[in-house]
Design brief:
Blueprint lengths: L1 E6 L6 H10 L4 E3 H9 L4 H7 L4 E2 L2 E2 L1 H8 L3 H28 L4 E5 L14 E6 L2 H9 L6 H10 L3 H7 L2 E4 L4 H15 L1
Parallel strand pairs: 1-5, 1-6, 2-5, 6-7
Antiparallel strand pairs: 3-4
């Protein structure tokens, strides 16, 4: 089974690209979706214990959590030590099920793939990219996004140019959905 890591900086089109793989029947494991499941599931209590007042009705309030970890590297590190093992556990289960099902190709959508050293866990890496102006336009279309939040996020991410240099495959998502779909199909044909 080939494991393709999908990554890219914020606003580059990871989720849309992942959906294109799913449309072709390729199983996807999204680290962001796994975090969302953790934040809304029984493990939310672990976050509340460490960051009191961040869980409302059993669900982590991302805004309240961000207020406690933003600009506080030590708090962010504590959060990551809580969440990352749970995400890896979900990923391990996903890979086990895919192998048992006889899948030949799966995609791990990992936003901080290079930053967390996860490229060693995949067979190939796809980086999605777009020009900086397109990225900013997409990011600022998100509810609640501010320049300060974007700066904090980008400070934790490897520069796009560096990610592209490390990639096995690159898709420029600014060239339109049809272009991206053709590129995804080409990668599936090559790897799957």
């Amino acid at each position: 089974m080939v494991i393709l890591g999908l990554t890219g900086s914020i606003g580059m089109g990871k989720s849309t690209t992942a959906d294109m793989f799913a449309e072709l029947g390729v199983p996807i494991h999204s680290a962001d979706a796994a975090v969302h499941a953790i934040y809304s599931g029984p493990d939310a209590k672990l976050i509340e214990k460490q960051f009191p007042g961040t869980v409302i009705d059993g669900v982590v309030d991302r805004g309240k959590l961000a207020a406690q970890v933003l600009d506080r590297p030590e708090a962010l590190s504590i959060l990551e030590k809580l969440v990352h093992p749970l995400v890896r556990q979900a990923e391990t289960e996903f890979l086990k099920q895919a192998r048992e099902a006889g899948r030949t190709l799966v995609v791990l959508d990992i936003p901080l793939l290079f930053e967390t050293g996860r490229e060693a866990a995949v067979d190939a890496v796809l980086v999605v990219t777009a020009p900086a102006d397109v990225q900013r336009q997409r990011v600022f279309a998100r509810p609640g996004m501010t320049l300060e939040k974007l700066r904090n996020i980008l400070a934790r991410q490897m520069p796009d140019e560096e990610k592209r240099q490390k990639a096995d495959f690159i898709i420029d998502t600014s060239l339109g959905l049809d272009h991206a779909r053709k590129e995804v199909a080409s990668i599936v044909n090559e790897l799957g």
